[in-house]
Amino acid sequence: MRQQDRLPLILERLAEHGSVSVVDLSAELQASPASIRRDLQVLEEQQLLKRTHGGAMAAEVIYELPMRYRGGRSQEEKRRIAQAAVRLVDASVHSVGFNGGTTITELARLLSTGRALKVVTNALNIAADLSVRPAIDLVVTGGGVRPESYELVGPIADRTLADISLDLVFLGVDGIDAEAGISTHDEIEARTDHCLMRSTRRVVVLADGSKIGHRAFSRIAPIGEVHMLITDAGADGAELDRIRAAGVEVTVA
Fold first, then answer.
1. Same domain, 94 and 126
2. HTH deoR-type domain spans which residues (predicted)?
3. Residues 142 and 116 in one domain
4. Domain limits at 24?
5. Which residues have a Cβ under 8 Å from the Cβ of 75 and sit 6 or more positions away?
């Protein structure tokens, strides 16, 4: 297993248990103790953990993995969700909005159209991918950079979004719950996401099964402001029923 594949797994174990040991990680990841120690050093240099004798502990509570370490998680499920979502961008849709996140990034990569399409996003990585496609008229919001998600957030982004109107918005979230609504880890990002939602009459949330029934720190919007949810077969069926009962169309990809 390559180091870039081991690092997110180490962070996941650290988030689950609060500490990890070189011996346990070496056995689980089938890597030498020396390789694991180098992995821990890399993560410590990024201030994501604190090394201890024989292992490491969280430098602080880890609520959110940086996006660069989330790309491989539930990758196949995210790809299926994105494939279902891209079919919604039919001939009747002339403008779409994207926030950030790994599932939305998968959707943006699939976006291919021979006709003109206006895309508004606050995600730097998505903007970079779409900027070279001649059929796409790209608008980037501006704002302060949130390094965990590569998103532009805050008052500048909010003011940009307040003055536009879109046919369809795709939103990635960290949690969706029938009672709590949709949520994310950061309160400033939540406000910018809500501004993006208000720019359209149709909001489609993309969330893999791990996000269903989960509540993150800051609410983006109540469930009544979501029109459609696309998720995967790993989602909790009872919670999906509650989301449907709240008036949300649910597609399981």
1. yes
2. 3-58
3. yes
4. 3-62
5. none
H, E, C per residue of 13-50: HHHHHCEEEHHHHHHHHCCCHHHHHHHHHHHHHCCCCE
Number of domains in the chain: 2
Distance, in Å, from the CA atom of 8 to the CA atom of 236, rounded to the nearest integer, reads 24
Averaged in consecutive runs of 10 residues, what is the pLDDT profile of the chain (253 residues)? 88 82 95 95 86 84 55 76 96 96 93 88 95 93 91 97 97 96 95 98 95 93 98 96 98 97
Query: What CATH number did the domain enclosing 141 receive?
Result: 3.40.50.1360
Residue 181 contacts residue 219 (beta carbons within 8 Å): yes
C-alpha of 20 from chain center = 26
pLDDT for res 67: 58
Does any domain span residue 150? Answer: yes
Report the C-alpha gap between 62 and 47 in whole angstroms. 11
Query: 124 and 16 share a domain?
Result: no
Residues 9 and 119 in one domain: no
Cα angle for residues 126, 132, 134 (degrees, 5° grid): 120
What is the predicted pLDDT for the residue at 64? 56
Residue-level pLDDT at 72: 52
Residues 83 and 50 in one domain: no
Token pair in block for residue 175: 């949690």
Alpha helix (H) ranges present in the chain? 3-17, 22-29, 33-45, 75-86, 102-110, 124-130, 155-162, 187-197, 237-245
Bridge partner list, 184: 218
Among residues 51, 63, 55, 88, which one has the least CA distance to residue 12? 63
Residue pair 206/176 in contact (Cβ under 8 Å)? The answer is: no
